[in-house]
Write a structure and sequence with these properties.
Helix content is 42%, strand content 19%. The protein is of the alpha/beta class.
Length: 547
């Protein structure tokens, strides 16, 4: 077989058939150009006969996207083929992709035709398509539920007429890897016996595979087909498509690249994979942006957690040597690097790594104290722990006695309806300037309370020349216990005008009080960072160095 694997992307055709997805022309062109930059060989731009929009999309991509083959889908009838060519004719490298079903179930219930009639339609379609375009692909729809001998006969006949690519779709995601391997092997042997060995080796004739994911086997089936001799793989970015979707092309690409040794050993010849893999994640995110189909976090290659580590054992391994728990370098597919996520399963190594990467220096005794507080005060409270919360523990260890602000009392009045706004009055102890009392109005009780605190201490959530600007980066409330008397916990992350961030946690049976405690804790830490952050970071911290 030919050593080059051709990647055929159908995100703009089969992918757009995902329920609820509708791409406009500008979006399709942007995705098409990004696919070309990725190194995709063939872009199936649409099904022109189905709508004026699809026709215009194929026509526009044919004109504007260069350096790649543009394909258009057409049923095995003259009108479809004519319309496909009309849309494609401006392409630098056009391909007509015509198809007809070959399974008995489709012949009986959908086409209502005999095997001989379908064979003639397939031959006629390929012949007619070739009168417009030298590059014709034929697909035997529902191939994996077709009679193998009959499927083989159809494939041989369309190849004899001049089809350059024959596609063997698993249209309903029915097959399994070993069965699909045997089917592709069976068809390869049919072609070899018919004298097509040289054109297969040169790549002038290719067997293609197009797998759906109804049983979650689309990628596995595609890889099995390559081992059997297929040299074109069809799929979509992020695996989108009809029902459970198509083979995720990024997974096929990275499986072939990562395990190239295995595939080459079993095939007996080298594989050529001309894909700029660093473009994968940006393109995946572009597809998400325009389709609205979000990728689940644990999705291989492009999921948010694909290179994220929360378990302490895994974090230790990755920090010491990335390859202990990562078989792909994240930068290779477009991520910025591995993600060490702090959570309830994290250990000392992750905390040490996180804090030292932020410029902190400390000895093992300090690390032990930080971890103990992390274990008892944070890890079972927050599901995902931002770095600022752990940094806050370190600041507490060395500076808690210097904190200026504490809550003396507060009163909040909520409003159910009408023109009145919720109002909060707070009394705060400032060690340097004495007691501060202030009133704030807000859209809710916590908003009012935060504005009252900010006003009392000379801060504002809006930029002005009189007060120090504060930005609320994150705010969340959760219950630690059940029932109406549950203790609430509030987490807050704030940022000053210079981009310095810190966090605070507060617990109380009253969620407004919990929120105020969290806010004041964050403000205390922020002041320490503003006043002596560089000093704290520049020294090797140990408990002996504490003032």
């Amino acid at each position: 077989m030919n050593s080059k694997i051709v990647f055929f992307d159908t995100t703009l055709r089969d992918g757009e058939q995902s329920p609820g997805v509708s791409l406009n022309l500008t979006q399709k062109v942007e995705i098409g150009k990004a696919l070309a930059d990725l190194g995709i060989d063939v872009i199936e731009a649409g099904f022109p006969i189905t709508s004026p929009g699809d026709f215009e999309a194929v026509k526009t991509l044919a004109k504007e996207v260069k350096g790649v083959t543009i394909a258009a889908l057409a049923r095995a009838n003259p009108k479809d083929i004519e319309v496909a060519w009309e849309a494609l004719k401006f392409a630098e490298s056009p391909r007509i992709h015509t198809f007809i079903a070959t399974s008995d179930i489709h012949l009986k219930y959908k086409l209502k035709k005999s095997r001989s009639e379908v064979l003639e339609l397939a031959k006629s379609a390929v012949k007619y398509a070739l009168s417009f375009c030298s590059d014709v692909e034929f697909s035997a729809e529902d191939a994996t539920r077709s009679d193998w001998e009959y499927l083989g006969e159809v494939i041989l006949e369309v190849v004899k007429i001049g089809a350059k690519t024959v596609n063997i779709p698993d249209t309903v995601g029915y097959t399994v890897p070993m069965e699909y391997y045997k089917l592709i092997k069976f068809l390869v042997e049919k072609l070899l016996l018919a004298g097509y060995e040289e054109v297969l080796k040169k790549g002038d004739l290719r067997i293609s595979v197009h797998c759906h994911n109804d049983l979650g086997l689309a990628v596995a089936n595609s890889l099995s087909a390559i081992l059997a001799g297929a040299t074109q793989v069809e799929g979509t970015l992020n695996g989108i498509g009809e029902r459970a979707g198509n083979a995720a092309l990024e997974e096929v690409i990275m499986a072939l690249k990562t395990r190239k040794d295995f595939f080459e050993k079993n095939l007996g010849y080298p594989l050529e994979i001309n894909i700029n893999t660093q473009k994968i994640v940006p393109l995946s995110q572009l597809v998400v942006k325009y389709t609205g189909m979000f990728v689940q976090p644990n999705k291989a290659i492009v999921g948010a957690n694909a290179f994220a580590h929360e378990s302490g054992i895994h974090q230790h391994g990755v920090i010491c040597e990335r390859s202990t728990y990562e078989i792909i370098n994240p930068e290779e597919v477009g991520w910025t690097g591995s993600a060490i996520i702090l959570g309830k399963h994290s250990g000392r190594h992750a905390i040490n790594f996180k804090l030292k990467s932020k410029g902190w220096k400390f000895d093992d005794e300090v690390l032990n104290h930080i971890f103990e507080r992390f274990r008892t005060e944070i890890k079972d409270i927050l599901k995902k722990i931002d770095d600022e919360y752990v940094e806050g523990i370190l600041i507490d260890l060395f500076s808690e006695k210097e904190y200026r602000y504490s809550l003396i009392s507060s009163q909040v009045i909520s409003v159910y309806s009408g023109s009145l706004k919720p109002i909060a009055q707070v009394e705060i102890e400032d060690k340097k300037l004495g007691k501060k009392v202030s009133v704030g109005l807000g859209v809710g009780p916590i908003d009012a309370a935060y504005k009252a605190v900010a006003k009392a201490l000379g801060y504002s959530f809006e930029k002005n020349d009189k007060e120090k600007f504060l930005k609320l980066i994150d705010f969340h409330i959760s219950a630690l216990t059940g029932g109406t008397s549950a203790e609430g916990v509030c987490g807050v992350i704030i940022e000053n005008e210079k981009g310095l961030r810190t966090a605070g946690l507060g617990k109380d049976g009253d969620i407004v009080i919990a929120s105020l405690k969290a806010f004041l804790k964050a403000l205390n830490r922020l002041e320490i960072l503003e006043e002596k952050g560089k000093e704290l970071k520049s020294q090797v911290l140990s408990f002996k160095s504490r003032s």
